[in-house]
């Protein structure tokens, strides 16, 4: 996107042209996000229906968790904000949304408009200055890597917490033995 912004500026396109590029790019990225959402949905169905008892999470529990994202305005705004933030990687968000089955319509609309905002930020960087952009992108890519690691750790912690709770629920109560 930064390169596209730089090219638009170097070829003399007006600033408003960046919006056109952002919308076209967001349409393509939204299609890619839909594919990732669908894949995560199918993998979740397949894996948890067969191996859920070994992991300690059932398909029904994941579905119940996903129902917490009922399509309310705050859910939409949260997803939109996540999609619009340049330092948050897009692919894991699509996979998580598909895994927990966030409302599809809400997912698609928030992804499209959030990606327009995100792409416009990058386009603006490229349009205003290549040198300033390279400095900013170095910092953003480092932050994006950190955010990816934190998201992976949080996901692992969440799965660990669910497994711990399942094992705790299966333990016989020590007070009952006396």
Description of the structure:
- The chain is an all-alpha fold and 178 residues long.
- The chain has 7 helices and no strands.
- The longest helix is centred in the last third of the chain and has 41 residues.
- The chain is elongated and about 70 Å long.
- The protein starts with a helix and ends in an 8-residue tail after the last helix.
Mean pLDDT: 80
H/E element string?
Answer: HHHHHHH
Q: Kindly state the percentage of residues in helix.
A: over 70%
Distance between the termini: 68 Å
The Cα radius of gyration reads 21 Å
Supply the number of helical segments.
7
Return residue spans where pLDDT drops below 50 for at least 5 consecutive residues. Answer: none
Major sheet attributes: none
User: What gross morphology would you assign?
Assistant: elongated
Structural class: mainly alpha
Beta-strand content = under 5%
* DSSP strand tally: 0
Structure, briefly:
The protein contains seven helices and no strands. With 178 residues, it is an all-alpha fold.
Defining key terms:
178 residues
Give the topology.
Elements: H1 2-10, H2 17-55, H3 59-66, H4 73-84, H5 90-100, H6 104-128, H7 130-170
